[in-house]
Amino acid sequence: MRWELLFADLEAQLHAATQQDLEQRVNELARIETAQLTLSEALRGSLDGKVAIVMCTGTAFHGILHKVEPQWVLLHEGARSVILPLAKMQRVQGLGARRAKTASHIPFTLAAALRILARNRAMVVLELDSSRNAAMRGVLDQVGADFVQIMQLADGVGRDGENRQGSAVVPIAALVAIASSPDNEF
After folding, report:
1. Among 34, 68, 38, 35, which residue's Cα sits nearest to residue 51?
2. What is the pLDDT of residues 97-135, one digit of tens each?
3. What's the pTM value of the predicted model, to 2 decimals?
4. Is residue 76 within 8 Å of residue 66, measured between CB atoms?
5. Could you write out the DSSP letters of every residue in the chain?
């Protein structure tokens, strides 16, 4: 009878140690999986939700998260849409715990989104990464691999020939925010 109790106790200890080892492995796998999540996957989990995004310049954008791509997000902020590069984000508030992988294996790059705005001849406001709040208003004339060319227009007026203020080339890496009307298709 003593032997039966001893073996039962040893068997219970082995089962407890095996269970503890299994729990440690599961926890480690969960940590590894979480470590592989990207910012875009964290943002994608809050699609159609209200978020606040603070950019590297300190500018805060508040709106509905409409689209999330590997390089950028589209935020509907009142009567305008704002494209925000992930690389220029400082912090995001309003995200839930849900995470979501991308449905497409083909990334929709920031340059591709800017080409849509150029094709539509959409009026845009470019916020630039600068120590002083630098912004440019106009129409994108050309989008290259790593730059945009903007035809600058005077504030508060339309796109006719008299209000052109020149053309400028801006590296895409210098863009912090691209605001336009919400009727562009993305």
Report:
1. 68
2. 777 777 667 778 999 999 999 999 999 999 999 877 689
3. 0.78
4. yes
5. -HHHHHHHHHHHHHHHHHHHHHHHHHHHHHHHHHHT--HHHHHHTTTTSEEEEEETTS-EEEEEEEEE-SSEEEEEETTEEEEEEGGGEEEEES--S-----S-SS---HHHHHHHHHHTT-EEEEEE--SS--EEEEEEEEE-SSEEEEEEE-TTS-SSGGGEEEEEEEEGGGEEEEEE-TTS--
